Amino acid sequence: MRTIASTFESLRVVHCHRLGLFAAASVLFAQAVGCSSDSPTPSAAAGAGVAGAHAAHAGSSSGGAGPVGSAGAANAPGGAANASAGAPAGGATTSAAGASTGGSSGAPSSGGGPSAAGGSSAAAKPSPGCSNKTPRPSGGQVQVANTSIYMFPESYDGSKPFPLLIALHACGNPNTEFVSITNNTGFATEYVRAFPNTPDSGQCWSNYTGDIARITSQYDELMNKYCIDQNRVFATAHSSGSQLLVNILAHKADAQHLNLKGIAPVAADPFNVAVPMPVLYIAGLKDTERSANSAKDTVAKFRAANSCMDTSKPYTAVMQCTSGGTQVNPGCNIYDGCAVPTIWCAHNDPAYNGTNHGIPCFAIKSMYDFFGSL
């Protein structure tokens, strides 16, 4: 499924695995779903809801609601069982309007929250393009049809290095999938955003050689033409795009080329992870488009790469939210003893017609906060 595109394209009826045909407008909070044959499901009603729930400046990054239950073991985030029943723990609740109340704060293993967009613990490393002082493109956007979209904040002037967010769409979705849900957030005002596209069959990321070549080429173009902070490059992705993102980490040379500071994949499948990588992994507790062990096995790969212990504790920095009338428990835990933050959120958002496979209502805000904490 895809979220509403920035152009608010007409609703289309699509087919995805076992879901069959259905009207995308029925999804109140449209989230992208990308399985091996993901299908786009835009919803005109989703734009305002997503933007409100995830607006980075509308609510505090503290005041989060933790998962139900005690510290989780390696195979199950704390509170997963209760999350499936829709019984969230006490704490902040974010509505579609982005309001929040109460709650306790939480953060990655360092205990600190974000102090600057994209993370500020490391000094900025200006890309070669900073010497060009290339000004902000007209309208703040550069688009090559069926290939790429680059979006620049209003404050970008070509002289100050900005963090970069790379977002990979789900199968059957255009590369506008992440555009509208990152608009009106801190990503739009503080990051350069890149949205690659794949021409693979069904717009699925199914040809690793060709896909990684396109992504690294676009990465190199951004670094050499525009002013990017090479120490603050982050990536998110959904389903088929998440599969590619995690697969990139299995190829050490490719992972090192992109030099990612942290990632936040949604609904991936397991691949070996060849480099330590800060990760906020998000998966539906009852995702019907993935195997029963997909999330557990994916997280196990990250735990191994990040030298984590088997134990974990609730990660309370992620706020609860509502989606389609369901109060969503993020179900997040952070693993102990890791070399870099390793977080697993097993949520109960019924996004995508109840499949649990979509991008949950808390995702974009939690990604922004997570990347800012690194």
Describe this structure in words.
The protein is 22% helix and 18% strand. It is of the alpha/beta class and 374 residues long. The protein has one domain: Alpha/Beta hydrolase fold, catalytic domain (Rossmann fold). Strands 4-5-7-6-8-9-10-15-14-11 form a ten-stranded mixed sheet, sandwiched between helices. β1 and β2 form a beta hairpin. It is globular and about 50 Å long. It starts with 12 loop residues before the first strand and ends with a helix.
CATH hierarchy class name: Alpha Beta
Element string (H = helix, E = strand): EEHHEEEEHHEHEHHEEHEEEEEH
Any idea what the radius of gyration is? Answer: 19 Å
CATH topology: Rossmann fold
CATH architecture grouping? 3-Layer(aba) Sandwich
Helix content range of the residues, please?
A: 10-25%
Strand order of the largest sheet: 4-5-7-6-8-9-10-15-14-11
Cα end-to-end separation: 30 Å
Ranges where pLDDT stays below 50 over 5 or more residues in a row are 1-73, 78-106, 109-117
SS content category: alpha/beta
Largest sheet, if any? Answer: 10 strands, mixed
> If you average the pLDDT, what whole number results?
76
Estimate nothing, just give the exact number of structural domains.
1
Strand content: 15-25%
CATH superfamily: Alpha/Beta hydrolase fold, catalytic domain
Shape: globular
> Count of helices?
9
The count of β-strands is: 15
